[in-house]
Amino acid sequence: MPTALITGASSGIGYAFAQALARRGMNLILVSRSEDKLTALAQTVMDQWNIDAQVIIQDLTEPDAAIKVADAVSAKGLTVDMLVNNAGFGDYGAFSDRPRQRHLDMIQLNIAALVDLTYQFLPGMQQRRSGTIINIASIAGFQSMPYLSVYAATKAFVLSFTEALWAENKPYNIRVMVSCPGPTETSFFKEAQFPESMRSVSPRQVAQPETIVQDVLDELESETPTIVSGGFVNNIVVNLSRFLPRPTLVNVIADQFRPPTSSQ
Length: 264
Known about the structure:
Elements: E1 3-7, H1 12-23, E2 27-32, H2 35-49, E3 53-57, H3 65-75, E4 82-85, H4 100-128, E5 131-136, H5 149-169, E6 174-181, H6 188-191, H7 209-218, E7 226-229, H8 232-237, H9 246-257
Parallel strand pairs: 1-2, 1-4, 2-3, 4-5, 5-6, 6-7
């Protein structure tokens, strides 16, 4: 039975991946800081789908987190056939107003941990000439976003990094793809500390995590490296930079996302 390692598996898109992959008969390695949630999820999928689910409790903002995860996987005698780099968070507000450590933790989690986990498990996939890597980015990765500056930049990195690995690893029969969802029914807006007045999004514009996961799994056999999920509007959003001058687009985004109390 193949095994998938999922980061940020305790909620949202990571949780939906765990459910969907268990349903497909994959064993799971679930990684997160939330021991209670992971343990409950592992028991649920094992009972429901008769697969094995291992739990690794790890804060991926720690500098050596990926090595610790790889060591734990090795100690369990497991092989990672699919890597789902889902863990990440955003932060809302003017760059200079937000805590320094918040920026650095975001870069560590959204970029460094993702790169290092890929580095830990990709060589084994290359040796076996099989495997799948799925990275979760965002439609925010397609343009600069004032007041989400670091978050959008980290997702632009994930997008570029994944597309490059997709091309590099085709000769090894390894599937590499990046999912770029728009607004999704997760705790993103709360954790990013958006003000209450800016957290409401039209239900028609918010995708369910299960939809994002299904879009990815439906495209696993395709040749495309990049999946934009969440409907027609999101596909328009990611292409706006082709039709508007970049300064114009960035100014429009700044007006849309400017904090309510800002006088700038």
